[in-house]
Amino acid sequence: MALPTPRHIAIIMDGNGRWAEARGLRRVKGHEAGSETVRVIAEECSRLGVEQLTLYAFSEENWRRPRLEIEFLMRLLKRFIVNERDTLMRNNLRFSAIGRLHRLPEGVRRELTRTMELTSRNTGTNLCLALSYGGRAELVDAMRELAAKVQAGKLKPEQIDEAMVSAHLYQPEMPEPDLVIRTAGEMRLSNFLLWQVSYAELFVSDALWPEFRAEHLHEALASYARRERRFGGLVDRLEPKTAG
């Protein structure tokens, strides 16, 4: 029997720097190797029929890194967005991004838009990059939009519920993640999709992101298949019949 496939897999990609340092390389080489893993995992998710794959690529906190590292990461991001267009089209992948995208360099934003437009008619997996992203920032931005509507008289405070908050997130149509994977053995969410992952299953892999391959993904999926998802309730069980 086929294992259940999550609709949405979200991955916190960790370990690029450690991978490079363990090999006596500059940290930037780890980021380059990590970008290769993105292609491998995106293609495998497409093959498996995963509806959405969201990758934590650059956080709001990452802006605090050294200027030269940030500049390299932006160049690498731009190159990835352009060079992977053939991969996206070949695998019927849609491309999208969430976060405070206005903070990204203009050249990166331009290529993001072009790639999203190019793949907009694809019907396969939605590959979503979280860029200049923070879960708290996303909630702050949603609250600001809601507050502005209240101030303008378009909304009453008592009308605000969970569904309305969800509708004001960066990608409202995003299905909530079923499975969150974190690499490099780290045991924290790091401000990633805080609203959306409330009932997600968590899986931590010891593999560093540049080493993460299809077999590691399948290990996470096998673990997911063994979970009993209750969403705060109880799973109905058949009571054993008794004689008499």
How would you describe this structure to a colleague?
With 244 residues, the chain is of the alpha/beta class. The protein has a single domain, classed as Undecaprenyl pyrophosphate synthetase (3-Layer(aba) Sandwich), CATH 3.40.1180. 41% of the residues lie in helices and 14% in strands. It has eight helices and six strands; from the N terminus they run E-H-H-E-H-H-E-H-E-H-H-E-E-H. Strand 3, helix 5 and strand 4 form a beta-alpha-beta unit.
In brief:
With 244 residues, the protein is α/β, with parallel strands linked by helices. 41% of the residues lie in helices and 14% in strands. Strands 3-4-2-1-5-6 form a six-stranded parallel β-sheet, sandwiched between helices.
